[in-house]
């Protein structure tokens, strides 16, 4: 069973019960809100002098921070794209009898902070005692999933004693990134306006020139009185405020409703931006809090209808899986093909950038099964749109074909560690695999004709240039790479990378055949566009035949890389627990030299090319690698869990699933205060649907080979498959597949 | 023969003839002045709006710049120590009839800038035409080698037309490092004073808190008139000036003498600093320019007496070798055991920090042969003083024993690339080898008793912890290292590192025996201090026996590292010359994957443990590795040159010597504008004395097995050996060894 460390068990809520300022950053991360367009950490609205990481983010708006500090290597990108903390739109300064409400100074009683995942909102309540008087606070905040540029807050105070209450809702553009170098301010060209009706701040990012317009308007409701006009307004540099004031008698109640909009010139013409934003704000204000909230929760109801997973008999597991689904849906709504899934979503600054190989390797299956097909397709088209930049990126390294970036916002590489940027090239294979996976799931082979083949051929061309023929051993090798296990750098012949490179070549040749057969004109056009000649494909075939895949012969397992067995062989179980997590306790040097594995590497290959390996092979490799794996990437346990389930290690599968599902909720890697591990949440989802559900589809028909963790009574999951909504029900005896909507499937 | 690219051939001078503002930074580097205590780039005194890198440095004064930008790894140092540009003390603003003299605006005629290496001064002369009038300028500057805190400038103008001349000598503390992040200013707590008599600026470095006091005083001499009082003075923030003015008639001549001092609280009590500095300035001023200059040149005469090398028949080679000796002596005078030899000396900001393994591997032999024994001994004691920090440094990586830093100012590591900081650990062996080399040269085995054994045992303890026993192959391996060839990172079993680690263990055990025999109490004391027990030494012996030294069996050569032969094997001669230097033309990825070698690696081991290898072995390894070496470290060609000479490749030896000797003069690696390659200059010296001179000493007697490059008529070199001054003369027929002073040597 789960041991709860931070939050209270609840099927639909994430609950902080009691006040825990020492873990405030953690709760802020867990309770982040987002709607694909914008997002906030679960910060308090009122002033707070305790420890907090303020975070207010707009999707696709980033700052290209300097990377050229210290040493430089040819081919490095010019910048590291940072997720950008923007105008604080949620702030409400509150005074009681002239004293500022600040939970950093006066500890509240009966404090709860709740993320309501069913309805997509953040609820907070507490009792605040000051100067011998007592007040009950109740606050609700949401970012509309229906009107994604709109957010609203209801901030309610009930007085147990007579008092004067002052609310000062404000916008504040004087914000920094905590990870800014030398506290650099990332915004410029700021303008603002404020009158009794509304206030706004417009700021433009340095270098990237994104303009973001924030506007706000508030209203006070006390009984039947609605007070729309502030008693005063004030402006300061990048700051506007409206002041509302009222006297409450004991037992009386007052609520401030703050509406805000965040609009950007990514979506609207710069010249119309403020007019548009203020119009939107007026619409929201006119609709009112209750209507906005109802439309918002209706959208969430739709999401859950198609994406929910119900676990019977294990509330913590239930909470964990919904937490993961919820945050995935907050981060990416699939409507803007220029966006992607950042590893921290809207929950923190860390890892900057938006797109990693996580998207194809982990997130795509989730969106394939929980969204309509246009959405996963948008994720693929995103890479097609970046193909020219990937070709440039390979050229910078002196290589042919396309090398997709490790981290990107707009197709350009924006990560600057050589061992990652230049060497963790297996990411390229994940992009090819994403195309394969999309087509396998949807049956839409024509994607190859329109977009897929261009990408595949150029990735394959890269692989063919990146390998070198070794005449002594008559094979093709790949030197100087970093595999998925980032606790090894610059190794030779990472098994996974070599495997997936050869697989990409194979699949690309198949794809080429498909396009030649179905649309030969288009095939010729593509071949001509990139100057492909037949000789090149002959070489590809030779590489497929002669790729070097290292093995540990005496154990009959695949070798993660050349020389892996020269390392001292110790198991994780033999480590002192005080040494974990290694990445916080050990020097990088010690980690690199050890045999310990950060995340699925050989196992990732077995997971991707599952059909190639028999159960014994899977078992031997699992038995060898799992005891050496520390799972210090959030992407690791889900893959191991799925393979464990497949080879009959059901308890192990459940143990690994726990680790994945509640990684953030239980702060396993002691880093949730920085933000959530968004992309790995999709992996958790996979370990339920692919793992416990035993889902697979090799031939256009969904198959399920399920098992239940022993402490679960039942598992239901909703999934979309080729325009059908299925609900798969598993209990201790039976499996049922219900088609809720769509045409019958033919086998 | 040399092809001169920048400077005019001259045995004692480095000459810029004609005005070359496009190469100004290059000439500024070449013509840097220094005296061990302070140094300047060869900047102009007067205002200059052209391209220039202003550089004024005080030895041992550095700024610990932030390194925590981007990604972070456990064990990284907190800072990267930067060489710090300080108060401009040489500045003289000059006006003619109210117009500022600026060679960036008006091109001078008959321009020459000369570094006079015999006398240690910088001479400049030119004709300046402005408003139809003409003036001859003659400027001499030196930093006294006799009073190292003093410098002086004579700035002389002869008028060919009547004119008003205004000199404004100043101090300016408003200086930046060009490599500062975000133009950060590195100084604080600045104070200043200025009166008719003198002016001063005192500034303290941020964080490190070094206080540097600069003071200046000037005097005007026109014929027999000496004008000591300025017509006016002025102060501004971190700026003081004195104004001198005179009218010249055609044919008349005026000279400004500017004296300055630079004193630091590294050498003097902070409270007395300004009093001391101003007293020193007064002394210098009273002595006068001519006397200061005479005392200064006398010191240089002494240096040349003991360190000169004369080459007959090749002026460019003559110039090259003196250039190297000269800059070595400017950089480090050996008097302060807290100082060391920075890779750029006082010639630029690049590479921050002061001490690399270059000191022991390259510089020590130079100082052993050209300085009295206390000076090389100071270099060794420097490391002894840092032993505790080296033990801490190893502990940070989770290892026992001592790991000396890759780059340091005060014993702490201050370089932050993991592949260097954590992995380029062969540096440790160079420090052990330095002790061995010092004792072999001087015969002072008792150094082991006093300082050496502590260092050796702790370095050995590090090696014994850093290797891992491989039970499958019954040997000790060293994984995850970077060898001297930095074009490979994180390799397994670098031959050089493994070799030198085992050698260190051997030598340490010998040293322990020596100390036990000569002073058993001291031996016991040391063993107790670091908790050594006999078992540990047993393990060391096992490691010595079973160290793994990779070989390329089919070629019977040592393998630079595991898997070297898996790389595509290409020779440098097969490269397009447009690809060179690789480090400017290729991506880091491509460099790492290639077989190309930056600098001597296997050959470095053969050079150090020369007696172990027969001529055939040296030849086979040279023949294999030299054609794969691009010599893109300044430390590379000298080692290859020496081995080439030894195996009879005389032309190759000379070719490689050329590359080393004139690296900066001819700007081979296209980076001299950043500063000079100071530490490699000692390597150049070695390639004359050890290479052409064939010097060796295995048994306390100097031996010479010389050869002359075919275009040289003769070679004489001066060297100190065990308190004797020798002059070795080599011509086409004969070798002579003259003992100029000291007792006869016994064989």
Name its key features.
33% helix; homodimer; alpha+beta; 747 residues; 10-stranded antiparallel beta sheet; 5-stranded antiparallel beta sheet
Helical residues, percent of chain A: 25-40%
What overall geometry of chain A do the principal axes of the alpha carbons give?
Answer: globular
As residue ranges, the low-confidence spans of chain A are none
| Largest sheet features of chain A | 10 strands, antiparallel
Mean pLDDT of chain A, as a whole number? 94
- Multimeric status of the protein: homodimer
Proportion in β-strands of chain A: 15-25%
What does the radius of gyration of chain A come to?
27 Å
Alpha-beta content class of chain A: alpha+beta
**Distance linking N and C termini of chain A:** 39 Å
DSSP strand tally of chain A:
28
Chain pair forming the biggest interface: A-B, 50 and 50 residues
Query: In DSSP terms, counting alpha (H) and pi (I) runs of 4 or more, how many helices of chain A?
Result: 19
Describe the structure.
The first copy, chain A, is 33% helix and 23% strand. Chain A is built from 19 helices and 28 strands. The first copy, chain A, is globular and about 90 Å long. Chains A and B meet through strand 22, helix 13 and helix 14 of A and strand 22, helix 13 and helix 14 of B.
């Amino acid at each position: 069973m789960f041991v709860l460390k931070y939050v209270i068990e609840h099927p639909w809520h994430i609950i902080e019960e009691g006040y825990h300022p020492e873990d405030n950053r953690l709760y802020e991360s867990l309770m982040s809100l987002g709607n694909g367009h914008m997002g906030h950490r679960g910060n308090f609205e009122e002033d707070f002098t305790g420890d907090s990481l303020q975070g207010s983010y707009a999707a696709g708006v980033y700052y290209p921070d300097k990377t050229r500090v210290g040493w430089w290597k040819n081919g490095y990108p010019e910048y590291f794209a940072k997720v950008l903390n923007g105008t604080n739109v949620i702030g409400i300064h509150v005074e009681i009898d002239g004293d500022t409400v600040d939970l950093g100074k006066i500890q509240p009683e009966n404090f709860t902070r709740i993320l309501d995942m069913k309805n997509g909102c953040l609820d907070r309540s507490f009792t605040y005692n000051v100067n011998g008087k007592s007040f009950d606070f109740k606050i609700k905040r949401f970012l509309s999933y229906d009107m994604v540029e709109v957010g609203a807050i209801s901030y309610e105070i009930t007085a147990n004693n007579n008092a004067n209450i002052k609310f000062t809702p404000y916008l504040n553009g004087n914000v920094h990134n905590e990870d800014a170098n030398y506290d650099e301010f990332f915004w410029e060209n700021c303008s603002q306006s404020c009158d009794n009706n509304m206030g706004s701040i417009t700021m433009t990012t340095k270098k990237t020139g994104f303009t973001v317009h924030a506007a706000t308007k508030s209203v006070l409701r006390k009984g039947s009185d609605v007070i729309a006009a502030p008693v005063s307004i004030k402006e300061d540099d990048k700051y506007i405020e409206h002041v509302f004031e009222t006297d409450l008698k004991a037992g009386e109640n007052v609520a401030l409703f703050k509406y805000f909009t965040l609009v950007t010139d990514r979506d609207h013409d710069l010249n119309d931006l403020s007019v548009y934003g203020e119009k939107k704000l007026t619409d929201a204000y006119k609709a009112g809090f209750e209507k906005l909230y109802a439309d918002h929760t209706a959208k969430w109801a739709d999401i859950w209808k198609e994406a929910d997973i119900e676990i019977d008999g294990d509330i913590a597991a239930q909470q964990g899986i919904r937490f993961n689904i919820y945050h995935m849906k907050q981060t990416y709504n699939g409507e803007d093909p220029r966006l992607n899934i950042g590893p921290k979503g809207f929950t923190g600054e860390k890892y900057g950038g938006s797109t990693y190989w996580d998207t194809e390797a982990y997130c795509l299956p989730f969106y394939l099964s929980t969204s309509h097909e246009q959405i996963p397709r948008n994720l693929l088209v995103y890479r097609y749109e970046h193909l020219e930049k990937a070709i440039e990126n390979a050229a910078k390294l002196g290589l042919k074909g396309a090398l997709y970036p490790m981290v990107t916002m707009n197709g350009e590489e924006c990560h600057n560690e050589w061992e990652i940027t230049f060497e963790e090239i297996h990411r390229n294979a994940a992009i090819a695999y994403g195309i394969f996976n999309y087509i396998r799931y949807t049956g839409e082979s024509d994607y190859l004709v329109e977009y897929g083949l261009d990408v595949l051929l150029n990735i394959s061309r890269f692989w063919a240039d990146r390998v070198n023929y070794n005449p002594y051993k008559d094979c093709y090798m790949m030197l100087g790479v970093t595999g998925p296990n980032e606790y090894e750098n610059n190794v030779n012949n990472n098994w996974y990378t070599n495997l997936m490179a050869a697989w990409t070549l194979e699949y690309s040749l198949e794809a080429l055949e498909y396009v030649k057969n179905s649309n030969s004109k288009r095939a010729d056009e593509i071949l001509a566009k990139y100057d492909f000649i037949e000789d090149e494909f002959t070489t590809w075939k030779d590489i497929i035949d002669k790729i070097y895949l290292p093995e540990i012969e005496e154990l009959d397992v695949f070798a993660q890389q050349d020389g892996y067995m020269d390392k001292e062989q110790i198991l994780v179980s033999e480590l002192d627990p005080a040494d974990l997590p290694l990445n916080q306790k050990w020097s990088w040097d010690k980690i690199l030299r050890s045999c310990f594995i950060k995340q699925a590497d050989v196992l990732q290959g077995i997971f991707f090319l599952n059909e190639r390996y028999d159960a014994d092979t899977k078992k031997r490799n699992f038995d060898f690698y799992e005891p050496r794996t520390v799972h210090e990437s959030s992407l690791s346990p889900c893959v191991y869990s799925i393979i464990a389930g497949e080879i009959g290690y059901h308890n192990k599968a459940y143990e690994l699933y726990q680790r994945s599902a509640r990684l953030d909720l239980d702060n396993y890697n002691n880093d949730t205060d920085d933000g959530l591990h968004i992309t790995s949440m999709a992996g958790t989802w996979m370990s339920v649907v692919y793992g416990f559900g035993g889902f697979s589809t090799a031939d256009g028909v969904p198959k399920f080979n399920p098992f239940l963790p022993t402490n679960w009574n039942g598992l239901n999951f909703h999934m979309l498959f080729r325009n059908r909504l299925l609900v798969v029900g598993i209990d201790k005896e039976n499996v049922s597949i219900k088609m809720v909507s769509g045409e019958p499937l033919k086998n």
